[in-house]
Design a protein that fits this description.
398 residues, alpha/beta, Rossmann fold, 2 domains, eight-stranded mixed beta sheet, three-stranded antiparallel beta sheet, 10 helices, 30% helix, globular
Amino acid sequence: MNAHRYILLKARSGDAKVLGGIRGGVLGGAEALRDIEVTAEVATLGARELNDVRRAPEVIRTAPVMPVTLIQPKADADAAGAQDAPGAAWGVEAVGALTCPFTGAGVTVAVLDTGIDGGHEAFRNKTIVQKDFTGEGDGDNNGHGTHCAGTVFGVEAGGLRIGVAPGVSRALIGKVLSRQGGGNTEQILNGLLWAVEEGANVVSMSVGFDFPGYVKSLVSQGMLVEPATSQALSAYRENVRLFDALADLVRAHSSMFAKTILVAAAGNESARPTYEIATAPPAAADGFISVGALQQILGPGRKVGVAVFSNALPVVSAPGVSIKSARAGGGLASMSGTSMATPHVAGVAALWLEQINSLNPGASIRQLEGRLIGSASLEGIADAERPNAGAGIVQAPR
């Protein structure tokens, strides 16, 4: 067997019982896990070396490095138009942020995407910490990351409120995708670990595993289509399990000293009514809150429905069609996709965390997840669309 590049998810602790429990899926309490150091390393391994590595007590999971891709926005020309509320993007109104007494103050949000145009007026007076995992340097030459960040925590721009949680003053921006929107699972995993280590309370990401791209890469290396597809399926499965394990560690470690909630886009591969595709990884991994996209149904009652492209079986939904937010280089842009829905949920999570902290600073991450998912409502969603909306559209605290 030829050697391949593998991600090694490792956990280090002075307590062998704790490591044994993690490997066996028994994570224990936050107190025992507080001193765990989690790292991701990459090594080129053959079959014998991989087998040896998997037996090492500190190795929790291994998975082949797999390409990931930006969950590409849908052209607004292909989506229904939207009517914004006076002075605010329609999604900000739809999730109840306009009437919410909280702004996300004191909450740290991470956006893992294509970077950010930190000089945009929507981010004035923000402390933005950037880290590049692509080798291109800081900034955003794509525009997707800037747009998503604006929806999470942007302040008024161009006379329009675009941010769900404009009171967020510290943002972590992990550039995990290139200007072309490509990357790999190593970059995503290291971006996640960095965000958690830097104290992110909410992580928003809009990336998906590039299964077709991986098959093409294997074929280009000389494999036939059938074995290439089989190998790609194996890598796909192992990477989902790796992200499962990482999410479990993050959730178990979160206590009054660390809270991190993981929010990810469900994907844009569906084409209703012809067919529906289930939520794609990494959003489909256990421990992630997957997000579907909603669009306005204009006319009497102004209901919303699931966007035709939005993948099925998300945990929750949010506005994701014709969303106005910050454009890299200045001004505003309108985009559509589950990528646009995800930052709405991240922003609402920041509002809920501020509310929870005002009452009980020692609340657990599960309380935050419970409030966020429990706030979701199917009210206002067209009856025929409800089965594809998860728990419904998330709502800010009142």
